[in-house]
Amino acid sequence: MIFLRLFFTILITYAATLSRYFVDNIFLVSLIASFIYGLFLPVRINNRFVKDLIFVYFLSSFTTYSGFIFNLFKLFSEENYLVIFYHINLVIFLNLFLMYLGFLFGKKISTKYNISNR
Questions:
Q1: Minimal CA–CA distance to 5: which of 43, 56, 44, 41?
Q2: DSSP characters for 11-26?
Q3: Has residue 65 got a pLDDT over 80?
Q4: What pLDDT, on the 0 to 100 scale, is given for residue 12?
Q5: Most exposed residue of 10, 32, 40, 75, measured as fewest CB within 10 angstroms of its CB?
């Protein structure tokens, strides 16, 4: 059983990493991940391992915080402080907005198919 879990963990993390490679845009990857996170929030998932596969292994492998910080560092080294401020706020606002949209969409789907947490 442990080898099967390990296999699925590796499979999901590789799939997420390869997906990020094909998107090749840190900002877009962040927005997609926020939407997916919001989409799965209202869904009732009783299996802890499946929850981990989605929220921990896939989404954390798909997004890249270090890439975001590297882009901010490049802007900082170019002394683009106003652009840094704009970029940070835009990323936060859009990610929260897309997570909320994903949540609303996931809630509608989970209610329709009776897979809601609530």
A1: 56
A2: HHHHHHHHHHHHH--H
A3: no
A4: 95
A5: 10
